[in-house]
Amino acid sequence: MKIVVCIKQVPDTKGGVKFNPDGTLDRGAMLAIMNPDDKAGLEAALRIKDDMGKDNVEVTVLTMGLPKAEEVLREALAMGADKGILVTDRVLGGADTWATSTTIAGALRNIDYDLIITGRQAIDGDTAQVGPQISEHLDLPVISYAKNIKVEGDSVIVERQFDDRYHVLKAKMPCLITALSELNEPRYMTPGGIFDAYEKEITVWGRADLKDVDDSNLGLKGSPTKIAKASDKVKKGAGEVVTPDSPDDAVSYIMGKLKEKHVI
Amino acid sequence: MNLEEYKGVYVFAQQVDNELSSIAFELLGKAKELAAPLNTEVTAVLIGSDVKGLVDQLAEYGADKVIVVDDPELKEYRTEPYAHALASVINEYKPEIVLVGATAIGRDLGPRVSARVATGLTADCTVLEIGDFPLNAIPGQEQKHNQLLMTRPAFGGNTIATIACPDNRPQMATVRPGVMQKINPIAGAKAEVIEYNPGFTPDNKYVEILDIVKELSDTVDIMDAKILVSGGRGVGSAENFKMLQDLADVIGGTVSCSRAVVDNGWLPKELQVGQTGKTVRPNVYFAIGISGAIQHTAGMEESDIIIAINKDDSAPIFDVADYGIVGDLNKIVPKLTEELKKVVK
């Protein structure tokens, strides 16, 4: 069985936010980690490998990003993935979710897979769009928001979370699943794994390696959505802080504010 | 793509178990506002099985037209038949704007449909307006008017971006629940009803539903709560959270917590707000006994109203709170619950 896990290197929210002049994020200037939902997706793939036997399952990790995104591939290899693919090219920069999913689908067309796992969403964009969009480009069934994944014969059985319920869904492979970080607790890299990670080969693909993809759908130019304006969040002005004389005063203060704001 | 062909503001009218979700009415309210400057109509797209009875409700909340896609394959939400239904409606009727709720259903449906009709999609919008793109005229570049300008927080709320989709139609957005205002329903309003069925032929993309497990309301997602009563280390013990639960019960809220509470084993992780927990944006956020480390505030500072109670007047939570009260939560919280009981039925 062949599993491809799509992962993304994301700026750590602790590192602060920096922009390019065109309003897109300046990813090069920020600290970077493996996106948490993607890491849960990788862990899910590695558990399938553990269950089915390591010779029966091959886990490939694929990322699109700057050359330094190789770091998250190495981390994934150290966790136990078998192969890494880095899709990187200047012409792919500034992509929105449409152009990103088009690019990743173009890369995936070169690979054999039974199952594709992506994270639900990345902590930088929070869109949750790229996974379902990849599945559409590849004409695959999609199950998003997976909180449990089991392989049964030629199908996957997945618990799919909704607001007030979950569905137990069965899809024939090949298919695509988007994983929630609640799915599991990802394993740590092992010293042996880290050593092996640098022995394993990472394939680097550029624009020319993408299959059945039109230039007009790539990068900033190929993105239907355009940024009109981007800014640091405007910090709220400091609110008021009171030190009431008694709990009763505190309560009447709060009650007053709740009424003023029509909460009650 | 001839952009001029695309007319009208469309709303995906989400229903679950043949009951319209609140987001459907919220989107209609916003759609009506957007339709005015565009001189166009508001159309609800109602997808399901045996759902025609819901049409009048959509009319009362502002739909001029309702397109009903009714088919047994649409009984339960599944990505493929719903995506086929909505994408077919878009291809057939060519709307200029399509709004979808940023719910667990809408965030699955939206991307699949936008990819199918080859247009952009902006996720989790909190502000939608009609305006120019680029915002200010740039010499040598055409400034397009009457564009949908979609504003959304990104990066865990650290940034705000306004996005347009100037060259593709429809302009699609998912919209965060609880942000847009419903109109006061117009009793007796009627909409023009159009029945449309593009045909549903199950293929490999139709996943099979083996089971549906409805969860009890006590597992309500804190991300959907309008009011959160959130406690931190200062609450002191698992037992003391009963006090917060009582307050939440009387005001129709949900209890959440900071990381310290989860680390102490007082509450489960799914109730944790913050960088390693969930990002929440309720109407009211009570921060009770929470010091307010940056990792916590990153997950809640977008809340409309933040009320903090803490005995330490230098707690950083007071920097993000709209209303800060320095005092003993053990005395204030039970009294507040009692007072609220008098005014809330």
Structure description:
The complex is a heterodimer of chains A (264) and B (345). Chain A is α/β, with parallel strands linked by helices and 264 residues long. Chain A has one domain (2-217): 3-Layer(aba) Sandwich (Rossmann fold), CATH 3.40.50.620. Helix content of chain A is 26%, strand content 28%. Chain A has 6 helices and 13 strands. Chain A has helices at 36-52, 70-79, 97-108, 130-137, 191-197, 247-260, and strands at 2-7, 9-11, 32-34, 58-64, 83-87, 115-119, 142-152, 155-161, 165-172, 175-179, 202-205, 226-232, 240-242. Chain A has a 9-stranded mixed sheet with strand order 9-8-7-10-6-1-4-5-11, with helices on both faces. Chain A has a two-stranded antiparallel sheet with strand order 2-3. By secondary structure, chain B is of the alpha/beta class. Chain B folds into 2 domains: 3-195, Rossmann fold (3-Layer(aba) Sandwich), CATH 3.40.50; 217-343, 3-Layer(aba) Sandwich (Rossmann fold), CATH 3.40.50. Chain B has helices at residues 22-38, 55-60, 79-93, 106-116, 241-251, 259-263, 294-297, 317-320, 329-343, and strands spanning 9-12, 15-16, 19-20, 42-48, 65-70, 97-101, 121-125, 127-133, 144-154, 159-164, 171-175, 192-195, 208-214, 227-231, 254-257, 284-288, 305-310, 323-326. In chain B, helix 3 (79-93) crosses helix 4. The longest helix of chain B is centred in the N-terminal third of the chain and has 17 residues, at 22-38. At the A-B interface, helix 3, helix 4, strand 7, strand 9 and strand 12 of A face helix 3, helix 4, strand 7, strand 9 and strand 10 of B. Strand 9 (165-172) of chain A pairs antiparallel with strand 13 of chain B, so a sheet runs across the interface.
Strand content of chain B: 25-35%
State the CATH superfamily name of the largest domain in chain B: HUPs
Strands ordered across the widest β-sheet of chain A: 9-8-7-10-6-1-4-5-11
SS elements, strand count of chain A: 13
- The CATH architecture of the largest domain in chain B comes to 3-Layer(aba) Sandwich
CATH architecture descriptor text of chain A? 3-Layer(aba) Sandwich
Per DSSP, what share of the residues of chain A sits in E-state strands of 2 or more residues?
25-35%
The structural class of chain B is alpha/beta
Q: Characterize the biggest β-sheet of chain B.
A: 7 strands, parallel
Tally of separate domains of chain A: 1
Order of helices and strands of chain A: EEEHEHEHEHEEEEHEEEH
Determine the CATH topology of chain A: Rossmann fold
Query: Which two chains touch over the largest interface?
Result: A-B, 79 and 96 residues
Number of helices of chain A: 6
Termini separation of chain B: 55 Å
Average of the residue pLDDT scores of chain B? 93
CATH class of chain A equals Alpha Beta
Across the major sheet of chain B, the strand order is 7-11-6-1-4-5-12
